[in-house]
Design goal:
Layout lengths: L10 H6 L11 H5 L7 H12 L16 H8 L6 H5 L6 H14 L6 H13 L26 E4 L1 H6 L3 H12 L4 E2 L10 H6 L5 H15 L3 E4 L2 H14 L6 E4 H10 L12 E4 L13 H8 L5 E2 L18 H4 L1 H17 L4 E4 L2 H13 L5 E4 H8 L10
Parallel strand pairs: 1-2, 1-3, 3-4, 5-6, 5-7, 7-8
Helix pairs in contact: 9-18, 11-12, 13-14, 16-17
Length: 396
């Protein structure tokens, strides 16, 4: 099989790139491995060389093909989309990198080892962590009732179910205080396959989407609320590409909580006398355009002082956890997170707040790596404290 004949239809994107280099300074993967080939510009240049290949290349001994260094460079990318945000040619770079990774997988040179392990785990267990699906909902707080016909399905995601259980647990406690009738899919909550789509494997998404959509529809809920930014993007956008959109209105937790506060259904009862800064998760911010909801939550809390880092909203720095980068290049990912923690510290904030379990995980590890005293929390952690009645003990 001639791999050069399998190049996807990306000629428009490749031609649009003027090699200006604006993408280089915002690429955190390039900061960790400062080679031109790792930059968005460098990868497009290489793809262009493949694209212009012809029958004379071989007799002229001009090597045009996929070498391991190029494959490595394509995967040394967090998929954050900061390059797309600054691209003067308006190239849809997030989609481009995922298309190229899919092409690498189809031609047998991807995914990388950690991503392949995730695929096998999801095939076998419906989650990448090897967790027992029968215990997927063990994080659910006992004091919160479940309703057979709920208003809301709370979707924890794999990381929330098996690694950062406090994120969906806290979300459930907060929504319960607003009187929201909830339930979960439990063992029927399959991985949304976001880790696979971001690393080039698309073959499992149809089955996952069909299963989740139909199980959710069977519950009769009006809304589905995701505690994970990656799940929110995938379920709200990618499911419709592979199978069908959800029958429920899709919300990220911050959107739903901000809505409840605005409608005066979730009461802010306690002050939070601390200075905080907010980190925009890439999947929630740049990819889905959700910037105001988490900030509106914090603005509604008396005593909370929100100070922005220089890089915020559409120009927010990536924490380093996305796009399969952390699973394959963990040391680099933690270093990126440490740099972000330093930015947070420079604001004088006591708390580094975010709204994604992946970000919570990596930023916490970055803070630990440099001995930072800043507290990394999900926005739901603060909401749990400030919505507690006076007689209840405050969450730590």
């Amino acid at each position: 099989m001639d791999i050069l004949n399998k190049l996807p239809h990306i000629e428009q994107e490749l031609t649009a790139c003027v090699q200006c280099g604006y993408c280089i300074s915002v690429c955190q993967a390039h900061v960790q491995t400062p080679w031109e080939s790792v930059t968005p510009r460098g990868k497009i240049y290489y793809l262009n060389q493949i694209n212009v290949g012809g029958p004379l290349d071989k007799p002229m001994k001009r090597e045009v093909g996929l070498n391991p260094y190029f494959v490595d460079a394509i995967y040394k990318c967090t998929g954050c989309g900061n390059c797309e945000a600054v691209c003067h040619a308006k190239i849809p770079l997030v989609e481009l990198w995922e298309t190229v990774r899919t092409w690498l997988v189809e031609n047998g040179v991807g995914p990388l080892s950690a991503h392949q392990a995730m695929k096998l785990g999801i095939e076998k267990n419906h989650n990448p962590y090897g967790g027992d699906q029968n215990h997927r909902g063990d994080w659910w707080p006992e004091e919160v009732p479940k309703y057979d016909v709920p208003d809301v399905i709370l979707y924890a995601g794999c990381t929330g179910s098996f690694r950062q259980q406090q994120v969906p647990r806290t979300a459930a406690l907060v929504l319960n205080r607003a009187g929201v009738k909830m339930n979960i899919l439990g063992k029927d909550e399959w991985c949304c396959t976001s880790p696979l789509l971001r690393t080039g494997t698309t073959t499992l998404t149809l089955e996952a989407a069909e299963h989740v959509v139909e199980k959710a529809d069977g519950m009769g809920a009006k809304d589905i609320v995701m505690a994970c930014s990656g799940c929110y993007k995938t379920i709200a956008t990618d499911f419709g590409k592979y199978y069908s959109q959800m029958g429920q209105q899709c919300y990220h937790f911050t959107q739903y909580a901000a809505k409840l506060i605005k409608e005066k259904k979730l009461a802010i009862l306690q002050p939070f006398e601390h200075k905080v800064t907010y980190h925009d998760p890439c999947h929630l911010g740049r990819h889905m355009g959700v910037y105001d909801a988490p900030r509106n939550i914090m603005k509604a809390i008396k005593g909370l002082e929100l100070v922005e880092m220089p890089r915020n909203r559409v120009n927010s720095m990536c924490c380093g956890a996305g796009g399969g980068y952390k699973s394959q290049f963990n040391n680099f990912a933690v270093r990126i997170a440490a740099d972000r923690v330093r930015e947070a510290e420079a604001t004088g904030a006591e708390y580094l707040v975010t709204s994604c379990p992946f970000c919570v995980t990596n930023l916490s590890q970055g803070a630990k790596a440099i001995g930072s005293k800043i507290k990394v929390v999900d926005v739901s952690d603060i909401l749990l404290q400030v919505t507690a009645p006076a007689e209840e003990p405050k969450a730590e």
